[in-house]
Amino acid sequence: MKHIIALDIGTSSMRSVLYDEKGQSAASFAHEYHNVFPKPGWVEQDPDSWRRAAADVLFRIAVFMKENGISAEGIAVTSQRSSFIPVDSQGKPLYHAIMWQDKRTIEQCGSLKNEYDMESLYRLTGLRINPYFILPKIKWFAQNEKELYGKMRKVLGVQDWVVYCLTGEYAADYTQASRTMLMNIEKFQWEEELLRIAGINVDQLPRLVPPGTAIGNLTADFASLTGLPIGLPVVICGGDQQNAAVALGVTSPGIAEANTGTGSFVLAYAEKAEFDSSCRVLVQASAIAGKWVIEAGIFNTGSIYRWFKEQFCQDIMNAPSPYVKMDEEAEAAGPGSHGVLMIPHFEGSAAPYWNPMAKGLFFNLSLGSTRGDMCRAILEGIAMEINGCLELIQPLSGPIKAVNAAGGMVKSDLFCRIQAGFYGKPVIRYRNSEASSLGASMIASPALGLHNSLEESIKAMTPAVDQVFHPHPKDKIAAEKLIAAKKKLYDTLADGQVYEQFMRL
Question: What are the residue ranges of CATH 3.30.420.40 in the chain?
């Protein structure tokens, strides 16, 4: 039996997972880390934290393999997207990573909107002008860290940085490049006009390759940190959400993925680049080279549940399963959370509003409100927002018959039932809910010789269904009332410029 090590670099943690050629997980090890928040709206992370995490989880999986007489054919790397790491000529980071949730570039985005046509850039890149993406982060760095900017020799994302740590090679795949605002989304090439806007040249970018490319081999230095063999092949597999989509069967029309971890991401398959007339959804490179996905996302979802646990559930934090306890309290609250409503815009909103100044909100609290009401409101608020993403995507992707759910939060039966009620569609949960790492293994498998083609690896490694959650008609009626109330509340705040007023306090 042949094996692959998947290295999955998330926003909250990194995980190494050992998969066999049938897609079965033999071992998994995780290393948690945290972002830092130097100023309001700023979100950063020390790039060295990813190097240390990779060394840790790969070391632990190497120990497991040695103890069990297992060898691996290579490492498949998948990662969070849209974060910016400038490095010098020696490959050393010049600054903390400016994370995908960071909002410091609102001014730069305003300037871009004034200088360039939003729709033209959207149709060129598949992205709208927003702090989410890397081009405005580069412009902020040039304007505010001029001395360090002068030393910048490469512009990297998180996956690019970790691959460099493992192999010494600079490379980016189509899926990660499609989150930069620097790649032509239809040609899968760095775009000269976009590089001119960013003020960089093509030599400052990594080599651009299709997902599933064996990019290099494990260096002697990193092998010594992990106990893995020198020269072990490393395959660059792409964005975590695109990889998850492959593992969850989003390889043909009619199925959407809703992956809920730190944030939530909704993806549907596309044979060609399909653009929204109002630039509200993203057109992204698929992890299947040469194909596309339509995507809508939410910045903060699972991170809100974790934040609530840490801030308001300290009495159960040391329990064996604190989230199970929170779900039990949410279950007792019942549908509608006794009128408590949560809007999950804790670090701004992505689709459909694309409002970087929006903030999170619990509304309609009373002295009778309970912690369980707030727990339930978080789950319902997340499902409401994901439902809005599905409604945006369907006109471009065609009718969506079912939603395949993944990510840490879908381990909760309650959350899956709530999702089905809000979507009015079956929600399908697979036995392996960590779809990003599995998808990376599928993408890497042909390059590492486990299967002859991507089609063969998908067929062999797709996980079994764990449970299907069907909506009840009464659930959808109640959900529609909550959705209408939430929309009215958000519109009142946005139209009244309440968010802008609070930004000035």
Answer: 3-241, 243-297+393-469, 302-389+473-503
Map 177-243 to HEC letters.
HCCCCCEECCCCEECHHHHHHHCCCHHHCCEEECCCEEEEECCHHHHHHHCCCCCCEEEEEEEHHHH
Tokens of 359: 């903030």
Q: How far, in Å, CA of 109 to CA of 276, rounded?
A: 20
Longest dimension (CA), the chain: 64
Q: Is the dihedral of CA 54, 56, 58, 61 positive or negative?
A: negative
Residue in 336, 327, 376 with CA at minimum distance from that of residue 474:
336
pTM value? 0.86
Tell me how far apart the alpha carbons of residues 333 and 176 are, in angstroms, rounded to a whole number: 41
Which residue type occupies 48? D
Quickly list DSSP for 308-368: HHHHH-TTTTTSS-HHHHHHHHHHHH-TTGGG-EEE--BTB--TTT--TT---EEES--TT
Give per-residue pLDDT as tens, 13-61.
999 999 999 999 999 999 999 899 999 889 999 999 999 999 999 999 9
CA distances from 200 to 68, 204, 281, 325 (A): 49, 7, 27, 50
Other CB atoms within 10 A of residue 220 CB: 9
CA distances in angstroms from 459 to 185, 443, 464, listed in the order given: 28, 12, 11
Residues composing the chain: 505
Render pLDDT for 210-225 as a digit per residue (tens, 0 to 9): 999 999 999 999 999 9
Indicate the fold that domain 3-241 takes in CATH: Nucleotidyltransferase; domain 5 (3.30.420)
Cis amide bond preceding 352, omega within 30: yes
The β-bridge partners of 292 are 270, 285
So what's the architecture of 302-389+473-503 in CATH?
2-Layer Sandwich (3.30)
- Residue 173, strand partner residues: 209
* Structure-block tokens of residue 235: 């395959």
- First vs last C-alpha separation in the chain: 61
* Three state DSSP letters for 15-45: EEEEEECCCCEEEEEEEECCCECCCCCCCEE
The alpha-carbon radius of gyration of the chain (Å, integer) is 22
Exposed/middle/buried for residue 284 (C-beta within 10 Å: 0-12, 13-18, 19+): buried
Homologous superfamily of 243-297+393-469: ATPase, nucleotide binding domain (3.30.420.40)
**1 CB-near residues (< 8 Å, 6+ apart):** 20, 21
In the numeric block, the tokens 């339930």 are attached to 376
Alpha-carbon span 238 to 285, nearest angstrom: 10
